[in-house]
Amino acid sequence: MASWAEFAADAPRLAEAIRSLIHQYGPGLGYLATVRADGGPRVHPVAPVITDDGLYCFVIDSPKRRDLERDGRYALHSFPPEDRDDEAYVAGRARLVTDYARVAELAEMSRAAPEVDWRLFEFSVDVAMLARRGHGGARPLDVGAAAPVIQVWRDSRSAGDRRAAQRFRLPHRAGEPGRGGERFPPARAGYGVSFIGGMPVRGASDADPPTTRYSRSRSRV
User: Fold this and answer.
1) Which residue ranges make up each domain of the chain?
2) Which 3 state secondary structure label does DSSP give 55?
3) By Cβ atoms counted within 10 A, which residue in 72, 112, 130, 144 is the most buried?
4) What CA–CA distance (Å, rounded) separates 127 from 162?
């Protein structure tokens, strides 16, 4: 899996947008999902720290820390902004940071109290997602609402997929199916669909404000 620094080097605009959402209130805020011993999900609010070098989180002695120590899989979702329904999501694996100098540096940066029983984890990035809905917000029951603009990045080394994900466009005529792997010319109306490994993720209406709509996969040969 990629580190945050590798992800940011490959998709800098997406990484900066996600970082801005996580740190929109100053300190990092998000919901951390972990895997319980019985395989079920567990969700807790946390205060992650994103630096140029990595995505980190101090975790106190708790069920979620034991989840990370046992399994390592995680998902992190941003807190909702006050004026819109934009959201960011990152998932991958957590590893315990044992570099004392790094732990001390981030503890000082985050004002982590030394008397508290916490441990520092670094989160790798398997997949990252950003959804922009604008100030109109999410209106799933409104058929006339503009579709969100969604960007997805995936580390193909984790997915076992060495094919570069490309941007495809479905035909603008409603009900006309697209074929995987076929490129369609730009349409004046319709939906832009991002594909990861040949599978559609979500789309965005051409009526939305101009923005980057893409998905990328890292490939190492």
Assistant:
1) 4-131, 146-218
2) strand
3) 130
4) 15
Q: Is 198 left (phi over 0), alpha (psi -120 to 50) or beta?
A: left
Site of tokens 């580190």: 3
132: helix, strand or coil: strand
Beta bridge partners of 93: 73
Cα separation, 190 vs 205, whole angstroms = 6
Q: What is the pLDDT of residues 26-81, one digit of tens each?
A: 889 999 999 999 999 999 999 999 999 999 999 999 999 999 999 999 999 999 88
d(C-alpha 62, C-alpha 35), whole Å: 13
The DSSP code sequence of 133-176 is --TT---TT-TTSPPPEEEEEEEHHHHT--SPP-EEE--SSTT-
Q: What percent of the chain has pLDDT over 70?
A: 65
**Domain made up of 4-131: CATH architecture:** Roll (2.30)
Tokens linked to 2: 């990629």
